[in-house]
Design goal:
Blueprint lengths: L21 E2 L3 E5 L1 H5 L5 H12 L3 E5 L14 E5 L2 E5 L7 H12 L3 E5 L20 E2 L3 E6 L5 H11 L4 E6 L1 H5 L14
Parallel strand pairs: 2-3, 5-6, 8-9
Antiparallel strand pairs: 1-2, 4-5, 7-8
Length: about 190
């Protein structure tokens, strides 16, 4: 694919899942699972290598959701602006994971906006139904997943309000969410 669209690639020994890289102008957010998956590097060396590969000033590490088999950041956080992120409006913010996520964002100097979230009807932990953060963002359009649940309308309204001036579309995403991913997982945005 890269060759056909004339993108030069750079080989690295670092293991990274695409869904675990959330980028802004000069920052990257990743789940801390990247350290376990790259134990051959010291923490300091891994961070230095990641900064060079992504050419960013700062990498922010957030905890990996213990209930997410992928361990990807794209179901937990997305940049809204360079210093503000969108996160799931978790039903129970007092559990250890939610507290540690919010603390990591606060310690990184990031503000957050909560958006609707309801995966609670899923039959398996591997399902991603009810997670609106895993949307597809293009230059002038945003496609958000919908699931036929009560949170669909408030989520769409909040995206319209937040991304004023962008075309907001929805697509029923139950089939792909049943397999554990949503729109960001199945797309590849390239900025040129």
């Amino acid at each position: 694919i890269c060759e056909s669209i004339h993108i030069l690639t750079e080989k690295s020994k670092i293991l990274i899942d695409g869904g675990n890289v959330i980028r802004s102008e000069n920052k990257i957010i990743m789940c801390d699972k990247v350290f376990r998956e790259n134990a051959q590097f010291s923490e300091r060396q891994l961070i230095k290598n990641l900064e060079q590969i992504f050419q960013v000033d700062k990498i922010i590490f957030i905890p990996t959701d213990p209930d997410d088999f992928t361990g990807h950041a794209d179901g937990l956080v997305r940049f809204y602006e360079n210093d503000t992120v969108l996160i799931n409006a978790a039903e129970n913010k007092k559990n250890a994971f939610q507290l540690s996520l919010r603390l990591a964002l606060h310690n990184a100097g990031l503000n957050y906006i909560e958006i609707p979230y309801n995966p609670f009807g899923n039959k398996k932990k591997s399902q991603a139904n009810g997670i609106y953060l895993n949307y597809m963002q293009m230059q002038q359009a945003i496609i958000i997943p919908v699931f036929g649940i009560v949170e669909d309308d408030p989520a769409e309204k909040q995206f319209v309000d937040l991304f004023n001036g962008n075309k907001i579309s929805t697509v029923n995403s139950n089939d792909i969410a049943n397999e554990g991913g949503i729109l960001n997982c199945i797309s590849w945005n390239i900025l040129k």
